[in-house]
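Bug #77: duplicate submission created two jobs. Keeping one. Sequence:
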Amino acid sequence: MEETLSKEVPKVLVETWISLARNNECNEEVRIKALRSLANSLGSVKEIAAYMKRHNIK
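Kept job's structure:
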């Protein structure tokens, strides 16, 4: 029997992107890439917020 893999983005990856996007010490290019990765993986700002709420990410 095959395992069904979750199609949801791993929480640790989302936390990393959020951390990079919020870090003012990071290069602007890094912060923009992190924001694009969030949007490409999760969708709209509303969907990102829902994911953060669902996984208790602050």
